[in-house]
Amino acid sequence: MYGWRGRIAIIVGKRNAVCEPEFSKMVPTGVSVYAARADTHTAKQSRDNIEPVAIYTDPEVMDQVEKNTEKLAANLAGLKPNVIVFTHNAASMASIQFNDSLTKTMAKQAGCPALTAGSAVVQALKAVGAQRIGLADPFPKPFLTQIVKNHLQHPEVGFEVVNHATAQGDNPFAITNMSPTTAYQIGKKADHSRADTILLSANIWRTLEIIEPLEQDLGKPVIAANQATIWAALKMIGVPPERHYGSLFTHN
After folding, report:
1. Which whole-number Å values give the CA distances from 26 to 16, 17, 155, in the listed order?
2. Boundaries of every domain in the chain
3. For the structural domain made of 6-118+227-247, what CATH number should be given?
4. SS in 3 state form for 172-238?
5. Exposed, middle or buried: residue 104 (CB in 10 Å: 0-12, 13-18, 19+)?
6. What percent of the chain has pLDDT over 90?
7. Which phi and psi angles does 227 have, rounded to 5°?
8. With bands split at pLDDT 50, 70 and 90, how would you rate the model's confidence at 173?
9. Which of 93, 112, 127, 156 is most deeply buried (CB count within 10 A of its CB)?
10. How would you list the strands of the sheet with 114-116, edge to edge?
11. Radius of gyration in angstroms for the set of CA atoms belonging to the chain, rounded to a whole number
């Protein structure tokens, strides 16, 4: 059977064409990945013409997102996954309370441990000893970047963002189809003499191929949202990685 060492269920945005290919490359033999696609465009957004960024701040919209996630997690429960993951880094960083609530909801409905990309990124940064971060992202809206910055610099999280660079993708479809060379270039722009770690933020962004070259060129750890998410998921199910995608994979 597929997934004889472990099954990872993921909830992924409907325009995300990156998570499944990158996750499938990173998982070791005997681990399989299964996805459910979420539509984060809600009825309230259509009714009130709210921009998609409202998902991160509007209580009614966030409540609907959690209810949709609850349904998807219940559907994925039929696969009997070993862990379920919400793969939307910025959304899970909207607030610590939202992240915690979403994690508990997924775990209850799927009948297994749960993880968000936001939690995975924080775990990964702590594993490599990060303190001062050069932040790279593909976001077209400064508002989205600020959400990630606020979360990372929250007193309960404890990092400092010392520099930022963005690819400024026009929309989710453009971002998910970016060349990995874009992530490399933006990652280099995000570097700073005070930064001890580079973070490539966003699960919809193709980054896997450039993590190790960027680490070699900058001489410091590089954490990417999808890399961190799989690393944390594998830790949760107790299966070590077969291949290393950056120095993070050498940390247990």
Report:
1. 17, 16, 32
2. 6-118+227-247, 120-224
3. 3.40.50.12500
4. HHHHHCCCHHHHHHHHHHHCCCCCCEEEECCCCCCCHHHHHHHHHHHCCCEEEHHHHHHHHHHHHHC
5. exposed
6. 77
7. -60, -50
8. confident
9. 93
10. 31-38, 6-13, 83-86, 114-116
11. 17
Q: What are φ and ψ of residue 6, in 5° steps?
A: 170, 145
CB–CB of 28/5 below 8 Å? yes
Mean pLDDT value across residues 226-242: 97
3-state SS of 52-105 is HHHHHCCHHHHHHHHHHHHHHHHHHHHHCCCEEEECCHHHHCCCHHHHHHHHHH
Token pair recorded at residue 190:
């995000």
Instruction: Yes or no: say if 133 and 125 are a contact pair by the CB < 8 Å rule.
Output: yes
Q: Can you tell me whether residue 109 is helix, strand or coil? A: helix
Do 120-224 and 6-118+227-247 fall under one CATH topology?
A: yes
> What are 207's two structure tokens?
């980054």
* pLDDT score for 108: 97
Q: What percent of the chain has pLDDT over 70?
A: 92
Q: Model pTM?
A: 0.92
Residue type, 195: A
Fold classification of 120-224 (topology level): Rossmann fold (3.40.50)
86: Cβ contacts below 8 Å, ≥ 6 apart? 10, 11, 69, 92, 102, 103, 106, 114, 115, 116, 117
